[in-house]
């Protein structure tokens, strides 16, 4: 009888020891651990921005870009957290990121280039504005996309893409946007079937956000 009592006591003691370990290991499976961290960048007030020198603004923009999350970090977030971060980052970008102007000339022997498709830019929404024209020029097997009288709301990691449709994932990335204002050229590979692409899109890569589009037509 006593042996049975000691056995029961031993089982109880072992259970009391094991219970905290089991709770520690198992609790993450069924207990939420909400996180609501602020975007780690303080956006200066408009008056403070206006008082900054160009060098200070450039330094602030560089600091801002170091804390913008990349695609991998964003993909690890829940949809709700991703949307919250997107809102904060793009709102901060509108204040902090300076305009960057480009002035690419027409390709050499401009008179020999033929315009094969063109379209006018329009902003994607009230926050993301765009203007100017996108024209594809061809000379033999060489093709170039030229943006003229161009402007778009600035943002992090904007790219120029040729899309089969403005809202599709089937596209050709021509590279990073050189500047959010001014004329600029982008080479198009010779083996690309241009008839498959009907739009030029200015696209924010990390947040998968369209900033501006131009529908192409002959």
Describe the structure.
- With 218 residues, the chain is α+β, with helices and mostly antiparallel strands.
- The protein has two domains: 46-96; 101-215, Sandwich (Immunoglobulin-like), CATH 2.60.40.200.
- Helix content is 31%, strand content 31%.
- It has helices at residues 2-26, 46-51, 54-67, 71-75, 79-96; strands at 101-103, 114-123, 130-139, 142-152, 158-163, 171-176, 181-188, 199-204, 209-215.
- A nine-stranded mixed β-sheet has the order 1-7-4-3-2-9-8-5-6, with no helix packed on it.
- The longest helix has 25 residues, at 2-26.
Question: What distinguishing features does this structure have?
Answer:
218 residues, Immunoglobulin-like, 9 strands
What order do the helices and strands come in, and which of them pair?
Layout: H1 2-26, H2 46-51, H3 54-67, H4 71-75, H5 79-96, E1 101-103, E2 114-123, E3 130-139, E4 142-152, E5 158-163, E6 171-176, E7 181-188, E8 199-204, E9 209-215
Parallel strand pairs: 1-7
Antiparallel strand pairs: 2-3, 2-9, 3-4, 4-7, 5-6, 5-8, 8-9
């Amino acid at each position: 009888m006593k042996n049975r009592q000691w056995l029961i006591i031993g089982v109880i003691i072992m259970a009391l020891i094991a219970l905290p370990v089991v709770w520690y290991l198992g609790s993450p499976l069924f207990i939420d651990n909400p996180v609501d961290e602020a975007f780690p960048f303080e956006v200066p007030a408009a008056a403070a921005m206006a008082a900054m020198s160009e060098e200070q603004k450039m330094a602030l923009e560089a600091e801002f870009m170091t804390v913008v999350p990349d695609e991998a970090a964003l993909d690890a977030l829940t949809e709700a957290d991703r949307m919250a971060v997107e809102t904060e980052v793009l709102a901060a970008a509108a204040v902090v990121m300076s305009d960057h102007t480009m002035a690419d000339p027409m390709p050499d022997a401009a008179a020999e280039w033929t315009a094969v498709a063109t379209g006018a830019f329009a902003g994607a929404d009230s926050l993301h504005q765009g203007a100017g024209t996108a024209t594809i020029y061809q000379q033999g097997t060489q093709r170039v996309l030229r943006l003229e009288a161009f402007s778009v709301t600035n943002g992090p990691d904007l790219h120029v893409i040729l899309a089969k449709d403005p809202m599709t994932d089937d596209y050709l990335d021509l590279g990073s946007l050189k500047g959010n204002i001014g004329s600029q050229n982008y080479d198009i590979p010779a083996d690309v079937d241009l008839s498959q692409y009907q739009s030029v899109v200015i696209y924010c890569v990390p947040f998968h956000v369209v900033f501006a589009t131009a529908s192409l037509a002959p």
